[in-house]
C-alpha cells in the first residue's frame, strides 16, 4: 500500500462499510505452481473476518485451507492532472481507495457455505431498489445441492488491515477543492465525493 501515513484511515466502521459497498475483490496466494489470484465476492462477518467462495476447479481452491492469503478491494479512483493545482509545476498522480486484508484462511463446511450464500444474496438483493428481493428458497433443493457442489466456501481471519485512502491529503484545501472539481468534471464523481467527505 502507499507508504505515506497521511493516506491511512483506521476507522474500522469505514473499512467494513467499504467491503459492504464494493463487495468484490481479489484473493492472492502462492501455491506450488506459483502465485495465483481469484476474483471473488467478499462478505464481511462484522467480527474481523471475510468470507468468499471459489469454483471447485479454481487453482487456489485445493490449497487455501490453512494458508495465509491476501484479499484486496479496489474502491473509486481517478487520474489527477497537475493543471488542477495552483502551481502546475508538479507531476500527475492518481487518487484512489484500496484495502488489503491479510489473514489465515479456513475452508468452510457445507452449512457455513450455505450461510455465506444466504447472507451474501440477502445483502446484495437488499441494495436493488426495484422489485421483490430474490431469496434462496426460490431454488429447488436438488438444484441448490448440485450448484453448491461446484463451489467451496472459505473464511479469512483478518490479521492485518492495510487501507489506503489517497485523497490529496498532502495538498492544500484549495488544491483539493480544485482536484475534486476536476475529477468530477472528468467522470470520477465517487472519488471526488470521498475527497470532500473524508478530508477536513
Automatic annotation (TrEMBL):
Pfam families named in the record: FMN_bind_2
Coiled coil: none
Classification via InterPro entries: Split_barrel_FMN-bd, TR_PAI2-type
Protein name as it appears in the record: Transcriptional regulator
Amino acid at each position: 500500500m502507499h507508504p505515506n501515513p497521511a493516506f491511512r484511515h483506521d476507522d474500522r466502521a469505514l473499512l467494513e462499510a467499504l467491503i459492504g459497498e464494493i463487495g468484490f475483490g481479489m484473493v492472492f496466494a502462492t501455491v506450488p505452481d506459483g502465485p495465483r489470484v481469484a476474483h471473488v465476492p467478499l462478505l464481511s462477518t462484522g467480527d474481523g473476518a471475510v468470507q468468499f467462495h471459489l469454483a471447485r476447479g479454481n487453482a487456489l481452491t485445493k490449497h487455501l485451507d490453512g494458508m495465509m492469503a491476501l484479499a484486496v478491494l479496489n474502491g473509486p479512483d481517478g487520474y489527477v492532472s497537475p493543471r488542477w493545482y495552483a502551481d502546475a509545476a508538479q507531476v500527475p498522480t492518481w487518487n484512489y481507495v484500496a484495502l488489503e486484508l491479510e489473514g489465515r484462511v479456513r475452508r468452510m463446511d457445507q452449512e457455513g457455505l450455505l450461510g455465506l450464500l444466504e447472507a451474501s444474496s440477502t445483502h446484495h438483493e437488499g441494495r436493488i431498489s426495484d422489485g421483490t428481493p430474490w431469496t434462496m428458497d426460490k431454488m429447488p433443493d436438488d438444484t441448490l445441492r448440485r450448484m453448491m457442489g461446484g463451489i467451496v466456501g472459505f473464511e479469512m481471519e483478518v490479521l492485518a488491515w492495510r487501507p489506503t485512502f489517497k485523497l490529496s491529503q498532502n495538498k492544500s484545501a484549495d488544491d483539493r477543492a480544485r482536484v475534486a472539481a476536476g475529477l468530477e468534471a472528468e467522470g470520477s464523481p465517487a472519488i471526488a465525493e470521498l475527497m470532500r467527505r473524508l478530508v477536513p
